[in-house]
Design a protein that fits this description.
about 260 residues; alpha/beta; Rossmann fold; two-stranded parallel sheet; globular
Length: about 260
């Protein structure tokens, strides 16, 4: 299927590693010129060089803090200047969830993953509306549907609520807004997680990885590239029928029925 993305221009936040980087790679492979955004300029420069070499597309590395209004405004202005506009936004920048319940900890979670997403959307929506089309994908997480982390659930439910409200507001302007809920995903930060499980249970690394995947319907944890493929489709004109609704990219949760 041709996703009709060739020649489009995208911003992916949180793109120096993990799902963000995998999404930038998937979009570039579909012919998209991509601005990759994170706070670490050196990591972005290295990622941009790899992506550009592999895809032949224009990759623009922009260091920015999505937790800061001025930084986001400057980032979008730089991207528009370099790429000529913005058609796709993938919000993937987030702080690691520490699970702390202090006021300061919760504020940091909300400022980056909720208000940060909103900052980016506010900055790019006028450019998308001017072009008559746009796609925004917010990356949240299955904690939106699970207990176990108050801060994790709050921030991901808030992203889902933000998504639905903005899909209704921006839909008439030709802009789709969707939210993707990944579960535990294989990224660069995964090895310490597996090691922690192995040590706690006194089992091998291989058995620990299998343990983490036992509640997934397909029997294993998703990779960042597999989650990115879902995001890439939702970012395309082909996904126009999906708007405002959550899409799980978890491999399936055993026993749950959502309707």
């Amino acid at each position: 299927m041709d996703l009709q993305l060739t020649g489009r221009r995208a911003i992916v936040t949180g793109a120096s590693r993990g799902i963000g980087l995998a999404t930038a790679r998937a979009l570039a492979a579909e012919g998209v010129d991509v601005a990759i955004v994170a706070r670490d300029q050196d990591a972005l420069d290295r990622a941009a060089e790899r992506l550009s070499t592999d895809s032949g597309r224009t990759i623009v590395p922009v260091a920015a803090d999505t937790g800061d209004d001025a930084s986001v405004t400057a980032m979008v202005a730089q991207v528009v200047d370099r790429l000529g506009g913005v058609d796709v936004l993938v919000n993937c920048a987030a702080r690691p969830n520490t699970g702390q319940l202090t006021d300061d900890a919760l504020e940091l979670e909300i400022n980056v993953k909720v208000r940060g997403y909103l900052r980016c959307i506010r900055a790019v929506a006028p450019h998308m509306a001017a072009g008559g089309w746009g796609s925004i994908v917010n990356v949240a997480g299955v904690a939106a549907r699970r207990t176990g982390s108050v801060t994790g659930t709050i921030r991901n439910v808030a992203v889902a609520a933000l998504t639905k409200n903005l899909s209704d507001e921006l839909g008439p302007q030709g802009i789709n807004v969707n939210v993707v809920h990944p579960a535990l995903t294989i990224t660069e930060v995964m090895p310490p997680v597996v090691m922690k499980v192995a040590e706690a249970k006194g089992i091998s690394i291989e058995d620990a990885a299998a343990e983490l995947g036992k509640d997934v319907s397909i029997g294993r944890i998703m990779t960042a590239d597999e989650v990115a493929a879902v995001i890439c489709f939702l970012a395309s004109p082909r996904a126009v029928a999906v708007n405002g609704d959550p899409v799980l990219a978890s491999g399936g949760s055993k026993g749950s029925v959502y309707y």
